[in-house]
Design a protein that fits this description.
Number of domains: 3
Radius of gyration: 27 Å
Largest sheet: 10 strands, mixed
Number of helices: 33
Number of strands: 25
Structural class: alpha/beta
Bound molecules: ligand 26W
Strand content: 15-25%
CATH topology of the largest domain: Rossmann fold
CATH architecture of the largest domain: 3-Layer(aba) Sandwich
CATH superfamily of the largest domain: Glycogen Phosphorylase B
Helix content: 40-55%
Shape: globular
């Protein structure tokens, strides 16, 4: 990796501006400089990209392909500079040219091609694969519109389209020559060939071209550049024009062209709730058919091995069930195009696919109407039917004890196709994303499948890339850490553990405290600039940032805020460390209750923030349009990380890891990866409260919880709920009645009231602990020290050795 100095870069930027824009630096805008710098980075990266591909080909190494409907990558300029080892030089060059680095980076639109945890995980995994020298690539969709932009208008969420490609995206390369054709609908005809084998011919299909756009994935200072390949849907060239000349059906063709482009038109904004829309099914098949065709073409071209050897050179990880049609698609190509027998094709397929489950919420499990698949993908439907038939037979004959369960196990059942069942039956590995989540899959949600295939099930606790989530977003903290323990932790994040030796060093703790305070000041400035609200940078920054969902219980958080406000109104002089509650959350556009909670948070904020009688002890900030870039601002400044899901519901969580790594203390339930955080840092360095997963599951199974009892016995709870019911926070007095009804008439399905008291008590512990700065900073540093365990490098090493069996190149 060549050393590039700031003065080199400065010169190159100046030269670029002249050649490309015909302008001098003095006249350049932030955007001009952004594009100039991005193209310089590309110039550096592209030879490495080429070399990496050459190397993989010449070594004939086994490759992993990560198939995902979502890649939530955010911005790339800063992370590419960082990974390429040019960030310092670039910052210096920009400042010398008279630009603010931050403003130049901000010219890049977030690539928001994902909803939340699942999509961001995919992005972190790509970073780790490249940084650890693994031959691993992503396949996804190049949505023309990413996740909607959120505006808050009169407290309500309003969604605007995210046309992120309005300006040219400098990181993508269109590779038209590698396009493939995807076929939908039509009729399937079966013929017998002379040798007795079956041939399938399609008639009247709708054909779509999938064009790949490649994005380089830059490894950390290692010359590796892997590929994220995103497919875009286009009409097949020529066909539209020919038809237009033939029949003059101009409008029909425009319409048809539009419907084709819609396939990669937008990202579905649902997170954890399944909606059976045909367009979504089309997107899924579009992704998997193009990716599988591409993988097989490349295998044939570069390995010169029979397809029976595919599992030795290729492994495909499917990110939740969304890409699970890849399984029948692989079977289709192996049998129909490559003329393999069923058994041989099945052997190959089941040794290539591995499936990750990200949720046990029943409303998130994908099942498609049989008729929809039959109509849209007739040949795929036949193959799923056959997989199902053979699977059911195997239970009937080999597992008599499960005969009665067949309707609950069958892939096709009561008119629906169950994608998780298809994925489990057809993969060699099924993994959960945190220890407790995998245990729940094995013992409850997928119990019978576990008894059928015990060896397939395994855990891979999630992780986050410490390069973006510490080194990049919190350079001051990274610097202090490196000053104390040296910089080996950057390559070996587990070495952060050496910080423990210093966790009682007073001078050092003060340094960490100072870094946190500087980060808080930066965030306070940003908040002031965005909202006009002044917050106290000495207050406790209590942060909950994640998608809005009932199970994540933002409602519990805001109930606590209302409680504090009520207390302060009664006793304004009460001695209390000032607190700032910071929220960021998007709700799925059709999720009514989630939107009501957003409205409630904003309404409470508008009352609390302007009430001078409480002497500025309480502020509530809802930052609109929460996304990766906003997370990067908030996380370094967090004191408290709210991870308060109803136990058993949050598969893992990854924001918990990001905030821990930045020195925030977790206030959370025993759910997802919070449990693993607690096991590492110990009870003294985390604030745990509330029902356990076992208790929650027990209530669901046997009843015994009555929300009304709490309403009638706990005055604090009654007061808050009555305030909601009586319109204390609403412009109209019916405002928020639905939240009230949901809790009292649907018996508080997420145990908000049940966990309310322990939550308050734990908050009191937090407030007291915060007063003792040194003890607090000792806890904070302890959290940072253990956070290396949650680097996605660790996670990827485990996937590579246990599931993928791939080697570093
Ligand atoms: C079909 C609708 C739909 C869309 C997205 C259903 C389910 C999803 C995802 C599985 C939701 C998701 O992002 N799950 C999150 O995955 C993270 C990464 O593993 C975990 O850390 C979170 O706990 C989990 O909620």
């Amino acid at each position: 990796m060549p050393q590039i100095t700031a003065s080199d870069l400065k010169e190159r930027i100046e030269k670029r501006l002249i050649i490309e824009n015909g302008m001098e630096v003095a006249n350049a805008t932030n955007k001009d400089v952004y594009y100039a710098l991005a193209s310089i980075v590309n110039e550096e990266i592209i030879p490495n990209w080429f070399n990496t591909n050459q190397k993989y080909a010449s070594k004939r190494s086994k490759q992993v392909y990560y198939l995902s409907m979502e890649f939530l990558i955010g911005r790339l300029l800063e992370s590419n500079l960082l990974n390429y080892g040019m960030l310092h030089a670039a910052k210096e060059a920009l400042e010398e040219l008279g630009f603010h680095t931050e403003n130049v980076f901000a010219e890049e639109r977030d690539a928001a091609l994902g909803n939340g945890g699942l999509g961001r995980l995919a992005a972190c995994f790509l970073d780790s694969l490249a940084s650890l020298y693994y031959p691993g690539h992503g396949f996804g969709i190049r949505y023309r519109y990413g996740l909607f932009e959120q505006r808050i208008i009169h407290g309500n969420q309003v969604e605007l389209p995210d046309y992120w490609l309005k300006n040219p995206y400098p990181w993508e390369t269109r590779n038209e020559e590698e396009s493939v054709v995807i076929q939908f609908q039509g009729k399937v005809h079966m013929f017998k060939r002379n040798d007795g084998s079956l041939e399938f011919k399609y008639e009247n299909t709708d054909k779509v071209m999938a064009v790949p756009y490649d994005i380089p994935v830059v490894g950390y200072k290692n010359n590796v550049v892997n590929t994220l390949r995103l497919w875009s849907a286009e009409p097949i060239p020529g066909t539209e024009n020919e038809r237009m000349e033939e029949n003059q059906a101009f409008y029909h063709d425009l319409d048809h062209q539009h419907s084709i482009e819609q396939i990669s038109g937008f990202l579905y904004p649902d997170d954890s709730s399944y909606e059976g829309k045909e367009l979504r099914l089309k997107q899924q098949y579009f992704l998997v058919s193009s990716s599988i065709q591409n993988i097989l073409k490349k295998f044939k071209k570069s390995y010169h091995l029979p397809l029976s050897k595919l599992p030795e050179k290729v492994v495909i990880q499917i990110n939740d069930t969304h890409p699970s049609l890849a399984i029948p698609e692989m079977m289709r190509i192996l049998m129909d195009d490559e003329r393999m027998e069923w058994d041989a094709a099945w052997k190959v397929t089941t040794n290539v696919f591995a499936y990750t489950n990200h949720t046990t919420l029943s409303e998130a499990l994908e099942t498609w109407p049989e008729e929809m698949i039959k109509d849209l993908l007739p040949r795929i439907y036949m193959i799923i039917e056959e997989i199902n038939e053979r699977f059911c037979q195997s239970i009937w004959f080999d597992h008599e004890e499960l005969r009665d369960e067949i309707p609950e196990l069958a892939i096709i059942s009561y008119g629906r196709v169950h994608m998780a069942r298809l994925a489990i039956v057809s993969s060699f590995s099924v993994n959960g994303v945190a220890r407790i989540h995998t245990e729940i899959l094995k013992k409850k949600e997928m119990k019978d499948f576990y008894s059928l295939f015990p060896n397939k099930f395994n855990n891979k606790t999630n992780g986050i890339t410490h390069r973006r989530w510490l080194l990049q977003v919190n350079p001051k903290l990274a610097e202090v850490v490196s000053d104390v323990i040296g910089s080996q932790w950057i390559k070996r994040p587990k070495q952060l553990i050496s910080l423990l030796k210093y966790s009682n060093d007073k001078a050092l703790l003060e340094q960490f405290d100072q870094v946190k305070h500087e980060n808080k000041k930066l965030l306070a400035n940003y908040i002031h600039q965005q909202t006009g609200i002044l917050i106290d940078d000495q207050s406790i920054f209590d942060v909950q940032i994640k998608r809005l969902h009932e199970y994540k219980r933002q409602l519990l958080n805001i109930f606590h805020v209302i409680y504090l406000y009520n207390e302060l109104k009664e006793n304004p002089n009460q001695d209390m460390t000032p607190r700032t509650f910071i929220f960021g959350a998007k709700a799925a556009p059709s999720y009514y209750l989630a939107k009501e909670v957003i409205k409630l948070i904003n309404t409470v904020a508008s009352i609390v923030n302007y009430d001078t009688s409480i002497q500025g002890k309480l502020k509530v900030i809802f930052l609109e349009n929460y996304n990766v870039s906003l997370a990067e601002r908030i996380i370094p400044a967090a004191d408290i990380s709210e991870q308060i899901s109803t136990a058993s519901k949050e598969a893992s969580g990854t924001g918990n890891m990001k905030m821990m790594m930045n020195g925030a203390l977790t206030l959370g339930t025993l759910d997802g990866a919070n449990i693993e955080i607690r096991d590492l840092v110990g009870d003294d360095n985390i604030f745990i409260f509330g029902l356990t997963a076992d208790e929650v599951l027990e209530y669901y199974q046997n009843g015994g919880y009555n929300a009304r009892d709490i309403y009638h016995t706990d005055d604090r709870v009654k007061r808050i709920l009555d305030q909601l019911n009586q319109g204390a926070f609403g412009v109209h007095d019916i405002e928020f009645k639905d939240i009230f009804y949901n809790i009292l008439y649907h018996n508080d399905p997420y145990f908000v009231l049940k966990d309310f008291e322990p939550y308050l008590e734990t908050h009191e512990l937090v407030e007291r602990a915060y007063r003792d700065r040194l003890t607090w900073m000792n806890m904070s540093v302890t959290n940072i020290a253990y956070s290396g365990k949650f680097s996605s490098d660790q996670t990827i090493r485990e996937y590579a050795s246990d599931i993928w069996k791939i080697k570093q190149v």
